[in-house]
Backbone:
């Protein structure tokens, strides 16, 4: 097989898998059958495209093959007479797979997203189902990404699909009164996926980093399918603005590089431009939400020409807005950092101390770490060293501990 | 689809319910769900201390005093409902006054 052909099949897989599975679930109501037939369609493509050439619309070709396969199997198994009637009643093959014609095929993918992210499923099952059915990752790949044995992941997927069938979780885009809350659930799953990949700092773990790519791809689909939901655009913008900095977050030794020391020339300018543009369009709808505000904060960082040019007053104000939208002590802590940058370390320290007094972040290493940084900047090195030691005792990852150890050494070295 | 709503909670939720307007709300729920054609059966259960648990081992009938599970949370009643899907069942369950003091397990029935 030629490299172009291999690339065409790989591209079709990335772009069409979710669509084909979603359409087939819509037709047959059978998740396993849908996945198997989608797989068969790609196997046939590998066999026939070298001989017959790449079809003009690969998605339509694959959908037709998969659907025919499903019809055959249902007929052969002589079950699901009703399903078969539905399949037979489908529009002719050439009307299928044409996303841009507004044929409603796109809606199937949206239905699939909402069903995978139904809150009656455990969050880990939602994530796994989304990756399997929409992104087309294999069970082994998902297991590797979430560091669980393949058998565990396989069981998780089987159980989730069984629950959808047995508990009567509807395959649909939720009605208007449920839509806002359920959209939040879908956005939450996609953001979790992204963060799983983003937190993977270990260069060897490519599978985890691939989660960022999948999350961005799915967020793109969602933003296109839900044009009236500014938070969908906001989430995509947020992901792009973070992803643009990915290459500079960790140095060659695997050590976290703080934002102010990252090499800005290596940030991805295209991703930043797209993120900022998406954010502007979302904000123009005048319905801000947590993802848009977080994207606005990320945009402040991403568009500053250097660390000193960062508009910290704007960032502090945005964190203030974020705290009102999603009250959370972690957001409060971030606001304290921004206030320290805008109004000086003692203003930030007052907020950190208030947070500490509230006790809500007990055990969270970034709380003493932030206090340590502020004390160091105020020249209170003795207290700073104590706070760094406290943070070290709580930090979970090697990269975090490495960073704190270095800071502690710097602090104690000074007179 | 048919679902069993298992009305669950511990002693404290029972006290809460006995206390105020909660149980008064229950009657309204049953009427509304009946009007909607959702409610098939409904019953409250006497406390677990009145329960007898039966097992047959070999040819012996074994009895024990009390509920089958010695847990803090117990089933205090059930409603059988018929709904289009889980979303409707969740909506019906969340309107039940008991959901505010205890919890309601929504369990689908085996369907042929």
Residues:
């Amino acid at each position: 097989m030629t490299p172009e052909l291999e690339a065409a099949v790989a591209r079709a897989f990335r772009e069409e898998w979710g669509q084909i599975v979603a359409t087939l679930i819509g037709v047959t109501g059978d998740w396993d059958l849908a996945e198997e037939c989608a797989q068969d369609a790609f196997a046939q493509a590998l066999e026939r495209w070298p001989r017959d050439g790449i079809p003009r619309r690969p998605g339509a070709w694959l959908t037709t093959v998969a659907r025919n396969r499903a019809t055959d199997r249902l007929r052969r198994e002589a079950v699901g007479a009703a399903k078969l009637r539905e399949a037979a009643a489908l529009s002719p093959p050439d009307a299928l797979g044409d996303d841009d014609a507004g044929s409603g095929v796109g809606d199937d993918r949206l239905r699939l997203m909402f069903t995978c992210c139904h809150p009656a499923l455990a969050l880990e099952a939602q994530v796994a189902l989304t990756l399997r059915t929409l992104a087309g990752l294999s069970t082994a790949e998902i297991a590797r990404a979430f560091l669980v044995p393949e058998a565990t992941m396989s069981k998780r997927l089987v159980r989730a699909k069984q629950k959808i069938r047995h508990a009567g979780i509807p395959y649909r885009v939720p009605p208007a009164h449920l839509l806002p809350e359920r959209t939040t659930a879908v956005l939450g799953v996609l953001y979790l996926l992204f963060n799983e990949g983003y937190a993977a700092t270990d260069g060897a773990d490519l599978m985890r980093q691939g989660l960022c790519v999948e999350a961005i791809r799915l967020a793109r689909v969602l933003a296109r399918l839900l044009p009236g939901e500014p938070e969908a655009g906001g989430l995509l913008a947020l992901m792009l603005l973070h992803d643009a900095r990915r290459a500079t977050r960790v140095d060659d030794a695997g050590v976290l590089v703080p934002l102010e020391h990252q090499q800005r020339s290596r940030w991805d300018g295209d991703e930043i431009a797209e993120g900022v543009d998406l954010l502007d369009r979302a904000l123009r709808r005048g319905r801000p939400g947590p993802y848009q505000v977080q994207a606005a904060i990320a945009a402040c960082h991403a568009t500053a020409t250097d660390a000193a040019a960062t508009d910290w007053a704007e960032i502090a104000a945005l964190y203030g807005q974020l705290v009102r939208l999603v009250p959370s002590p972690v957001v409060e802590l971030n606001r304290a950092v921004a206030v320290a940058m805008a109004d000086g370390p003692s203003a930030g320290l007052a907020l950190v101390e208030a947070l500490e007094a509230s006790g809500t972040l007990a055990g969270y290493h970034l709380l003493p770490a932030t206090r340590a940084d502020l004390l160091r900047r105020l020249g209170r090195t003795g207290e700073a060293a104590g706070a760094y030691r406290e943070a070290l005792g709580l930090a979970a990852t090697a990269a975090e501990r490495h960073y704190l150890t270095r800071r502690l050494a710097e602090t104690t070295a000074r007179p | 689809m048919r679902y069993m709503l298992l009305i669950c909670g511990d002693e404290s939720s029972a006290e809460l319910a006995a206390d105020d307007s909660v149980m008064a709300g229950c009657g309204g729920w049953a009427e509304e769900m009946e009007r909607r054609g959702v409610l098939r059966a409904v019953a409250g259960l006497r406390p677990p201390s009145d329960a007898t648990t039966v097992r047959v081992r070999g040819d012996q009938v074994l009895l024990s005093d009390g509920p089958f599970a010695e847990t803090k949370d117990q089933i205090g009643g059930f409603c059988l409902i018929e709904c289009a899907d889980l979303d409707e069942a969740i909506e019906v369950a969340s309107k039940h006054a008991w959901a505010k003091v205890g919890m309601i397990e929504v369990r689908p029935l085996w369907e042929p």
In short: Chain A touches chain B at residues 118, 120, 166-170, 174, 178 (CB under 8 Å). DSSP finds 19 helices and no strands in chain A. Chain A has four domains: 3-100, 104-223, 227-290, 363-415. The longest helix of chain A spans residues 3-28.
